[in-house]
Design goal:
Number of helices: 5
Number of strands: 0
Largest sheet: none
Oligomer: single chain
Structural class: mainly alpha
Helix content: over 70%
Distance between the termini: 54 Å
Order of helices and strands: HHHHH
């Protein structure tokens, strides 16, 4: 029952995001706005617990979510043959860009996180 409640939260927040995106003519898709709303709603324990239950279920069946993608690739093999090399290049370059941005951000944030740590207690070592 908790997973059903979590699925309801996900669908409601996505619907609210869609309404906000279309109503306010935002340049973001509705599901993205819904995810931002979900990020804020996860601070509330009833939402967090129920969404965690449905997330565990969805992650357990994640492989089934790739079936429509596989069927779509098989249906459009002619497009893949025509643009496959360009698609592969875009996937590789965008992956490299994502990794580079993540690495640079991590490199910038590690000193900040280390400066917030308390100094090591020298008397806590082995005696």
């Amino acid at each position: 029952m908790n997973a059903l409640r979590g699925l309801t939260w996900l669908l409601v927040l996505q619907s609210i995001g869609e309404v906000l995106s279309r109503g306010l003519q935002l340049p973001l898709p509705g599901p993205v706005v819904g995810l931002v709303l979900l990020l804020g709603a996860l601070n509330w324990a009833p939402v967090r617990d129920s969404v965690a239950a449905v997330a565990d279920f969805l992650l357990g069946h994640l492989s089934l979510l790739f079936v429509p993608v596989g069927v779509g690739v098989m249906v459009h093999l002619d497009l893949l043959g025509r643009y496959g090399l360009r698609l592969a290049a875009v996937v590789v370059v965008s992956t490299w860009i994502g990794l580079a941005v993540t690495a640079l951000l991590l490199r910038a944030l590690i000193p900040v996180a280390q400066s917030e740590l308390p100094p090591p207690n020298e008397s806590a070592g082995p005696q």
